TrEMBL record:
It comes from Actinomadura darangshiensis. Keywords: Hydrolase. Signal peptide: none annotated. It comes from the Bacteria. One of its GO terms (molecular function) is triacylglycerol lipase activity. One of its GO terms (biological process) is lipid catabolic process. This is Alpha/beta hydrolase.
Amino acid sequence: MCAATAGITAVPAQAAPGQRGKLISSAPLTNAAALPSAAKNRFVTYVSEGARGQRIRVTGTVAVPKGTPPRGGWPVLSWAHGTTGTADACAPSADTANGPAHDYLSITEKYLDKWVARGFAVVQTDYEGLGTPGGHPYMNGASEANAVTDIVRAARRADHRIGRDWFVAGHSQGGQATLYTAASRSRDIRLRGAVAIAPGSQMSQAAEYVKAQHPGAETALPFLFVLLNGAKAADPSFVPEDLLTPRAGAAAKAGRTNACLLQLKQLSANLPLDKVFRADADLTRFENYYDSQEALGLNLKVPTLVAQGTADREVSPAATQNLVKDLCSRYGSIAYRAFDGADHRASIDASFEASLKFVQDLRAGRTPPTTC
């Protein structure tokens, strides 16, 4: 699988030897990223493939259930996390009780603990460039899907009780990553199904949305800085500060060094929308790149559940419905579930029981309902 990257030039990253999924290191994990219901939590480093096709090192976590695995080994849930930021401190594996991304990760850690308590080996990638050398190419579908897939391979090398059957689930940024993963194929491990919660879309519109000061643009502003930094990570010749005022440029730079999404929200809280972009800012390159990373047009290969909260202000329910309609035009085994009153983050817990049933049905050989 390869996503187009219009307007972005090839950039070498730190080389990582070996095949994708090679386990480089494994060590005990004891911080907030460790799942309480697991028998064992590990911090792993493994080989994956970056946004431009180069071998890279990626970090992540592996949680193994208690008890005796079923025949064939523990089934796997590979979790694709939502937006934390682009600074190394935003990597989920580095989370602590007072960490800069704990406001979000505390939610997903409790959610993932439910999966490991129900007999799933839970693996979570940090993605390319989060906690490892190089920038994080935020919302680059190919890079995300590679990292999400390769950690399953690495986890099986870290613990041989982990089986070949796996499922992918993700939220927001991770929802988009989930759809890219569902469009890929692997022979050595068997992807059985996918759960995309509030999948990110319409990324290219964020800049114009803020620039035009549309209603709700204040909500989009912190994500804009993450998007700009993601484009820079894919191509260092793209300089966000060339588009931004000095004050906004300082926020973008902080997002590359030590500020996660919560801190970016704080930094931009008093930034007037008419003071974000320079008067001569040309958004074409930014927009072309993120247009190329939309999940629209993907050919999914496994049954997929798309979950969406009706009160979500960060990912529009209408945009998700449009995405599902497009995906259904090429693959019929997609179910769409709306959760009344759930906002962006609340959709994670609101969709858990439906997601668990969806996965259990697939494991039992039952055909989940479709809305296509």
